[in-house]
Design the sequence.
């Protein structure tokens, strides 16, 4: 079949970030989509930060002690909690998208979202508690 | 009858302008005034250069689709006072080339149907003695879909990928796959089985939220994926 006409609009140049993240007036599916993209970007940034922090271990025992001091600081623990939120949200929403995309609960995607959100909130609260208490 | 003056902040654009601007018009409305009527009042009483597209006034033709306070809706069935805001922002649909003011070029939208050879009217809806207008072979439409373009405007992926087939065309494809009535569906499945087709959707379902006809394009796209997944497994197993 022939190529389709692109929807390019010279008067209004495309703005993907606005399209993905402008959730004003949008419903739960778009909020879930935007948060999924946001957590994806956050997790990618985290991966590089993680490698940079781990590189301090190259400094031997002193490097290890420096790393532990950073890892136990309150700011780092708060970042751990943010990371935990990102991991749980992205994993559970990814599961939802995969299930819906394969045709399971395609017409009940909102219910699936709220059920998985409830599970995610419990996991997040338990995880956050453990991060600050262990 | 309660009357109130509301500000309509309308996007304006004429060919040759570098980018759109906004113009605010005061309009006196009552509880029955729709956004479409308010816009035609502006056109009649304040600025005859305001361009908009409309036809039926009862949500059947799909020509008055626009964004009202940021949400894709048919202007003919949205009452101004129901919006609950003193200023109502009216903009043309997204993800379609802007022609003028509130009018967008629907050609890329229809091109997706034409490229796929869609839509086909249900055979049961043919009237053998019906006369078709000069220059067309058959009446064509996609059943409930009124081809208003609201779904395409609301889709976040259409906003980042100008070559995505989009929810309306994919829903029409699935409608034929679901009920082929003798039509060949393999080539249609081939057409949508790629990264510009149904695998490009990211399951935001905003298309289904804004659809004024209850077509549920998101559900149709997921149904297509199920078909394609089955087909792939079947081929893997030598089917």
Sequence:
């Amino acid at each position: 079949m022939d190529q389709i006409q692109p929807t390019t609009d010279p008067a209004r140049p495309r703005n993907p970030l606005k399209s993905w993240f402008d959730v004003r007036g949008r419903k739960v599916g778009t909020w879930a989509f935007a948060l999924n993209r946001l957590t994806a970007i956050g997790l990618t940034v985290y991966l590089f930060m993680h490698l940079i922090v781990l590189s301090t271990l190259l400094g031997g025992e002193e490097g290890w002690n420096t790393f532990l001091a950073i890892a136990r600081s309150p700011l780092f623990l708060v970042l751990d909690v943010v990371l935990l939120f990102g991991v749980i949200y992205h994993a559970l929403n990814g599961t939802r998208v995969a299930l819906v995309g394969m045709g399971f609960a395609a017409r009940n995607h909102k219910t699936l979202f709220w059920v998985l959100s409830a599970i995610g909130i419990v996991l997040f609260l338990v995880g956050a508690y453990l991060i600050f208490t262990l | 009858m309660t009357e109130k003056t509301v500000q309509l902040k309308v996007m304006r654009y004429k060919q040759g302008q570098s980018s759109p601007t906004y113009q605010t018009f005061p309009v006196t409305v009552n509880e029955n005034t729709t956004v479409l009527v308010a816009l035609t009042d502006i056109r009649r009483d304040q600025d005859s250069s305001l361009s908009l597209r409309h036809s039926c006034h009862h949500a059947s033709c799909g020509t008055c689709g626009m964004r009202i306070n940021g949400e894709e809706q048919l202007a003919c069935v949205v009452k101004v006072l129901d919006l609950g805001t003193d200023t109502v922002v009216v903009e043309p649909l997204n993800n379609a080339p802007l022609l003028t003011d509130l009018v967008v070029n629907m050609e890329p939208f229809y091109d997706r149907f034409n490229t796929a050879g869609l839509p086909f009217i249900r055979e049961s809806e043919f009237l053998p003695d019906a006369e078709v207008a000069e220059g067309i072979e058959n009446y064509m439409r996609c059943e409930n879909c009124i081809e208003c373009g609201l779904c395409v405007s609301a889709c976040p992926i259409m906003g980042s990928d100008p070559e995505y087939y989009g929810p309306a065309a994919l829903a029409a494809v699935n409608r034929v796959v679901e009920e082929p009535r003798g039509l060949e569906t393999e080539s249609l499945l081939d057409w949508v089985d790629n990264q510009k087709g149904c695998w490009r959707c990211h399951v935001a379902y905003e298309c289904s939220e804004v659809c004024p006809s209850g077509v549920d394009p998101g559900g149709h796209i997921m149904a297509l994926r199920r078909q394609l997944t089955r087909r792939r497994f079947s081929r893997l197993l030598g089917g």
In short: Residues 85 and 124 of chain A are 6 Å apart (CA to CA).
